[in-house]
Amino acid sequence: MNRKIILALVAIIILAIFAYGIYYVNDYYHADDTAKDLLNGTDNVKVVKTNNGLLLD
Question: So what's the pLDDT on residue 35?
Fold first, then answer.
């Protein structure tokens, strides 16, 4: 009986981690216009495109 309880707890933990993973992946918001405007840079921040992505200087 002790083994069944441990297996049930492991199954519950695995399901909880899986459910949180699905929630985390689906909780996505597109960038709004303010964020898109800031990618062009400002007087104080220069945005440079590199091979690895964007560099904010």
Answer: 78
Range of the domain at 52: 2-56
Number of compact structural domains in the chain: 1
Rounded Cα distance between 47 and 49, Å, is 7
Taking the mean position of all CA atoms in its chain, how far away is CA 30?
A: 12
Prediction pTM value: 0.51
| Cα four-point dihedral sign 22, 52, 37, 34 | positive
For residues 26 and 19, is the Cβ–Cβ distance under 8 A? no
* pLDDT tens figures, 5-46: 999 999 999 999 999 999 999 978 888 888 788 788 788 888
- Return the bridge partners of 49, or none: 54
